[in-house]
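Lay summary. Proteins are chains of building blocks that fold into shapes, and those shapes determine what they do. In this project we predict the shape from the chain. Here is one chain we studied, written as its sequence of building blocks.
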Amino acid sequence: MMSIKRKLPLVWVLVLSFAVAGILVGRWSIGRVSAEVEGYENLKIFTEVLSIVKKNYVEDVKTKDLIYAAIKGMLNSLDPHSGFMPPDAYKEMQVETKGEFGGIGIQIGIKDNLLTVIAPIEDTPAYRAGIKAGDKIIKIDDQSTRDMSLHDAVDKMRGPKGSKVKITIMREEWKESKDFTIERDIIKVKSVKSKMLENGIGYVKLNQFQEQTASDLSAALKQLSDEKMDSLIVDLRNDPGGLLNSAIDVASQFLPQGKLVVYIKDRSGEKTEYRTEGKLPSYEKPTMIVLVNQGSASASEIVAGALKDWHRAAILGVQTFGKGSVQSVIPLSDGSGLRLTTARYYTPNGTSIQSTGITPDIIVKLESKNGEKEHAVFREKDLERHLKNDQNNDQNDEKMQPEAETAPVEVSEKGDVQLQMAIDLLKTWKVFKELPKAS
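And here is the predicted shape, written in a compact code that computers can read:
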């Protein structure tokens, strides 16, 4: 079966607080949530254990705390993007779609059973404190993070502006760990930045796909068009994703109406398509290059994949993160919520990027120079319990992955060879385009 959808209630990617993950939020009823459970007879064991703990544990424990812990354990046994959110965490998730929340400003994941920094968010307390990609967070407020879920770790690092949290970091080149006491702040992520480069080349950087991203992009493109932009670089590097409907609206600004952007399939094989809407704006035909890297994930990969499959832009950089699954957020009766992986998504050509990512048309890797520090690169395939790509067996899945990589911790604009290559290619294209035709 196949259905076609355009507008979603909400689609989100847990990136600023959790690992990179795409989330499709549906309008679920309590009846749907409380559907019949297969093997319900096994719940007898659970109730037996619950009763024994309540009656015999050395200290008094609340039944709700035990049940919440059991639910967390159940969800944590699935893929890394499924999880349980107590009421406070569920409310915080809804706040994050606005691009503003209280915390320290890092993206985290789990690698080798260790809580690992994917990247600090620019101009946040963590960034200013010197937290780097690849850092291992071994303690939060002196509590070990071993076996701590991503969601619990996020909950401990979140807090009101002005409060402080101590995180203990281990870095590859250090002989011993170091403590960082960081004062929390309101984290505001500006989703779109833009400027005009040389030779009429416009540049747009998308940091995250939020509710206002498409409108911010439209305004940025209008400004660049007014400044006589005739070619464009769209930078999706280190953009961990965001709202799916925002990604579709972004793609709609570069593709004709009715073009397939992405489709999803659930475990029954039912297919749902998402297509562009609206008329193309006046800047509909600039020559485009899209920059991607290992930090381009989920919604970013949806946009890059659509522009690549429709031959709308050349993709330049290195293999993307490889986040190709969809999570449904299901509200529960007590104000808590489930985040459950319910589908995989596919590019317009029918390609699954789960654990493999998008291969750029032009491979350009950033190299460290003069002893610059590097960090280990990790992608979806490196996350614990990640889903395999359903279009490849495990052996082929591994063969498609690049070997262990490193990347510079920081790159100046002058040393950004990926951006410079994009600029040079657009300049060259203009030269060839302006050559007189042979008579």
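What the prediction tells us: The chain is about 25% helix and 25% strand.
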